[in-house]
Amino acid sequence: MNLDFYRAFSISVDLALEARDIIRGATGREIPGVEERVQQLPNGKVTTITIKDKNAEQVMGKPMGTYVTIEVQRLRFKDPEVQEEISQAVAQALTALMSAHLRPQSHVLIIGLGNWKATPDSLGPKTVEYIPVTRHLHKYAPEALITGMRPVSAVAPGVLGTTGIETVEIIKGIVQNVKCDLVVVIDALAAQSTERIGTSIQISNTGIQPGSGIGNPREPINHETLGIPVIAIGVPTVVSAATIANQAIQRYCQNTGAIFNQEISLNSIRAVLSYFGGSLTVTPKEIDDLIENTARIVSTGISYALFPGIPKESFGFYTS
């Protein structure tokens, strides 16, 4: 698919890896100012994309910074060995991105973005359920803490439609009042390939813009808006119906030898999606299991990064 397709349907590309592939495919060359590094895992791979200058930022449509994407097809399944491998990969990426900002007593605020009433958008709130929270214990029951546990708090602020308050306004209020040093936000993303649903995790040091993947962008949550570093963790849970339809038409043409015409494809898809205001997102029927599985993996990775050296079996004592 070319850039005109995404512009035609106002589709935002959440994953830096996909944005890189789309632009590189459109231009037929590498993108100046974008650096890539790939690390193989036993069951997948980790791709680190660094956007190094303003020109690359403009071309990619992503803020300058580092984007780490963990890709594992078996991430969809409840395989303890794979879950542990990916949790460790999440922890390694987080540790690298947080190292410049984190001290032993730094207060970290975990934010679970999204709507807990809508399953595809509930990854953030569900992940927060499994995060060990310790800030209150540092003040009221320090004897209950294991040595080396820093103050951590967590909240799922909901969405504008249920609270009437912009999410960033809620987070700003918390940051100003509890004086935290670092924010980690978790959110569901939109992918441009069905293969990435529940199989990819993106971690970046650039913050996040809630709702952008479904065409409803809110004010960004980043260093500029909060005044402190923000690490973002996202997992694709939906894909645009327009993308699926266009890919299906292209595949049909490839298999039958027919000539693919982008304009005809666009007009046909527009006609079908006109009943939905021109926009429709799709999620798999097993999304409940994908959210639960991914939330546990991400929360364990966060816990490993924030509480290094603390036994995994101890985390449960500090969760809700």
UniProtKB/TrEMBL annotation:
Q: Propeptide residue numbers?
A: 1-14
Q: Give the Gene Ontology MF terms in alphabetical order.
A: metalloendopeptidase activity
Gene3D superfamilies noted in UniProt? HybD-like
Substrates-to-products reaction catalysed: Endopeptidase action with P4 Glu or Asp, P1 preferably Glu > Asp, P1' hydrophobic and P2' Ala
| Key words, A-Z | Hydrolase, Protease, Zymogen
- State the EC number(s): 3.4.24.78
Q: Does the keyword Methyltransferase apply?
A: no
Instruction: List the InterPro entries hit by this protein, alphabetically.
Output: Pept_HybD-like_dom_sf, Peptidase_A25
Q: Where are the transmembrane segments?
A: none
Its GO biological process annotations read: proteolysis; spore germination
Modification note: Autoproteolytically processed. The inactive tetrameric zymogen termed p46 autoprocesses to a smaller form termed p41, which is active only during spore germination.
What is an example of a Pfam family matching this protein?
Peptidase_A25
**Protease: present as a keyword of the record?**
yes
Describe its partners and assembly state: Homotetramer.
Described function:
Initiates the rapid degradation of small, acid-soluble proteins during spore germination.
* Record NCBIfam families: GPR
The entry sums up its family as follows: Belongs to the peptidase A25 family.
Q: What is this protein called?
A: Germination protease
The organism of origin for this protein: Syntrophothermus lipocalidus (strain DSM 12680 / TGB-C1)
In the record, what lineage is assigned to the organism producing the protein? Bacteria, Bacillati, Bacillota, Clostridia, Eubacteriales
